[in-house]
Amino acid sequence: MPPRRVITGRSQEPRKRFAEELKKLRLERKLSYRALGSALGWDATLFSKMEKGETIGGPEVVQALDTYYGLPGLLLTLWELAAGDTSQFRAKYREYMALEAEAVSLWNYAPCVLPGLLQTATYARQLMETGIHEDDELNRQVEARLGRQELLTGENPLGIRTILSETVFHTPLSNPVEWQEQLEHLLVVGDRRNITIQVVPHSAGLHALNSTDVIFLRLADGRVVAWVETDFSGTLVDGTAEVDLLQLRYDHMRDRALSPADSRKFIMRTLEEAQCEPSI
């Protein structure tokens, strides 16, 4: 069978196609970014970033664009495809991202750094500024990571339990203000009903997951898989016996963690201490 011909000539990649359609609609109506922003009540720079592919925006602004252009649901459909496009992630993480998008609940342990679902943009950017990504690619990867956080909101948000080692809080961002913003963000998201945050203090001593960054995903069919990650790669664990062993270790470690209420107090104390530290 001959390959299917591309009729429109526009990109077949969901994120690029979404950006192209936004630009096409605006130019057809001879609108500037400022005029579009004034009409919809959003900052004009947001539409510029969306058309350049630096962000896909949120569902609210996309719904407003649908209404403004008289295209009920069309742009929102393209936005959903863009948001779920795993090609935006580095190849070695696409398998995990696909599973995360299907999961109904997630629980994890983070020994050194905050998990991506709880990071602010500045936290994610500083982690990624390693020389691997630069300029536009860095922006795309940060935006892709933040885009995953859509899983935590909406009508059927992902249920998440995250347990953080105290080490996470002794590794702040280089900018004190940005670190305070990250801590404040943890307190805000920790108030959501679908999110539970706990802290394992150093005083809890050694445990079997001390240096293991692990994420458990419960899928819609009831199956549980685990993702074990390092700074350089990740490994999917889907064998029943192996997952059961990891879960047993996770349960023992969770028994040593502070309660959610005491963990919140711990984060608040860390924030207060950060606010009292003199700036240089």
Structure commentary:
The chain has helices spanning 14-28, 33-40, 44-52, 59-69, 74-83, 94-102, 121-128, 135-147, 166-169, 176-189, 240-256, 260-276; strands spanning 105-110, 159-165, 195-200, 213-218, 224-229, 234-237. The protein is built from 12 helices and 6 strands. The protein is α/β, with parallel strands linked by helices and 280 residues long.
What does the secondary structure layout of this molecule look like, with pairings?
Elements lengths: L13 H15 L4 H8 L3 H9 L6 H11 L4 H10 L10 H9 L2 E6 L10 H8 L6 H13 L11 E7 H4 L6 H14 L5 E6 L12 E6 L5 E6 L4 E4 L2 H17 L3 H17 L4
Parallel strand pairs: 1-2, 2-3
Antiparallel strand pairs: 1-4, 4-5, 5-6
Fraction in helix: 40-55%
What oligomeric state do the depicted chains represent?
single chain
The proportion of residues in beta strands is 5-15%
Q: Uncertain spans, ≥5 residues at pLDDT below 50?
A: 1-5
Round the mean pLDDT to the nearest integer and report it. Answer: 85
Order of helices and strands: HHHHHHEHHEHHEEEEHH
- Count of strand segments: 6
Rg over CA atoms: 21 Å
Tally of helical segments: 12
Terminal residue distance = 67 Å
Which word captures the global form? globular
Strand order of the largest sheet: 3-2-1-4-5-6
Class inferred from helices and paired strands:
alpha/beta
Largest sheet: number of strands, sense, barrel closure: 6 strands, mixed
